[in-house]
Amino acid sequence: MNPIQAAYCRAFQQGFRIMYPHFPYREPEELRSDADIPAKLKELGISSALLVTNESLRGLGVTAALERAMEHAGVRCAVYDKTPPNPSIDHVEEAYALYRGAACGAVIGFGGGSCIDCAKTVAARAAYPKRSVRQLAGNLKFWGKLPPVFAVPTTAGTGSEATLAAVLVDGETRRKFTINAFPLIPRYAVLDAQNTVGLPPFYTATTGIDALTHAVEAYIGQSTTRETRAWSIEAAKLIFEYLPRAYKDGGDLEARQAMLHASYLAGMSFTRSYVGYCHAVAHSLGGRYDTPHGLANSVLLPYVLRAYGKSVYRRLKELAVAVGIAGENLPEAFAAERFIRAIEDMNREMGIPDKLSGIRPEDVESLSRFADREGNPLYPVPRLMDRRELQRFYAMVSDR
């Protein structure tokens, strides 16, 4: 990256860092089970809520207990179950129309990050009905209170139940974009391991490494705090210990609950300290090819960490020591490489590939331009890279 652009990026990031103590971050109130949601809605005086989920979860009966509990409590439940893995503006608008038609007062995101992000954006549309989703997109475009959002994650990966971000796809351009605003942090988070038991092993693996990516990118960036570093370390320790168990035995509730907690901690960390180029490149692939976000991050993470070079050696050594794969006396470069190899080993053991299919060489120029716009100047990465430097990652992970 040229010096002028680099100086601008660092100045922009420093401005955010200076303002950090004044930003209205908050933690969601944790509920033990989705069965607690109807009582909380009645306590809030809300008689109708929109449930945002997907056809698969509803077809498997995962949301049935909540729907019955809502009916039993006398709280109307409108259901939008058309959320795809990468929801678009059109999906948000469909769900919002249902929200308005049913005179809802709250939104429940039940599923993976796609469902929760869709639910969060519906709440933003409800609070700002005169603004389109595109007008809400970007950083800190709105500050007002939203209808209560209940986040019920069924994967332990995205951390969306704790973040100020929602990620969507623009159906016209096939590009992913983010909405970052403090009111998007859900009011309530339901961390119930029972809701993750049915997740297939491969999705358990990729969503788990997605959570690790959040923890690592937040930890190695230049906007960390003592608090976010502690959350990232605890999340990484939990993931290295419990993700292989959850992958091997989907019914291991201790491992499932630990992974939910790890995802939540990583979410709180990265929503304050941000992510890095791994996410920027992954989002470009998800927008263009519908590449699952967890898979893209899982494959990209080792490549991106190595590309950062010596700028991450100290931080990666700290993580390696914390998770027990390196000793204090090991040189930083060796400890960093050991940490990266541990990620690769875990990926391999869980059947995660080291390449991605479907990346077209003719798309790389536009993909890298999109990743550059997302990552710069916002992400406080350890080493800045411009569009041309980011292009290498598409070749590195392509199976062509």
Structural class: alpha/beta
- Sheet with most strands: 6 strands, parallel
- Spans where pLDDT lies below 50 across 5 or more residues: none
Q: How much β-strand is present in the residues?
A: 5-15%
- Largest sheet, spatial ordering of strands: 1-9-6-4-2-3
Number of strands: 9
What is the overall silhouette?
Answer: globular
Arithmetic mean of pLDDT: 96
Using the CA coordinates, give the radius of gyration. Answer: 20 Å
Strand and helix order = HEHEHHEHEHHEEEEEHHHHHHHHH
Helix content, binned percent: 40-55%
User: Helix count, per DSSP?
Assistant: 16
Describe the structure.
The two termini are 28 Å apart. With 400 residues, the chain is of the alpha/beta class. The strands form two sheets. It has a six-stranded parallel β-sheet, sandwiched between helices. Strands 5-8-7 form a three-stranded mixed β-sheet. The protein has 16 helices and nine strands. 54% of the residues lie in helices and 10% in strands. α13 crosses α14. The model has no long low-confidence stretch (mean pLDDT 96).
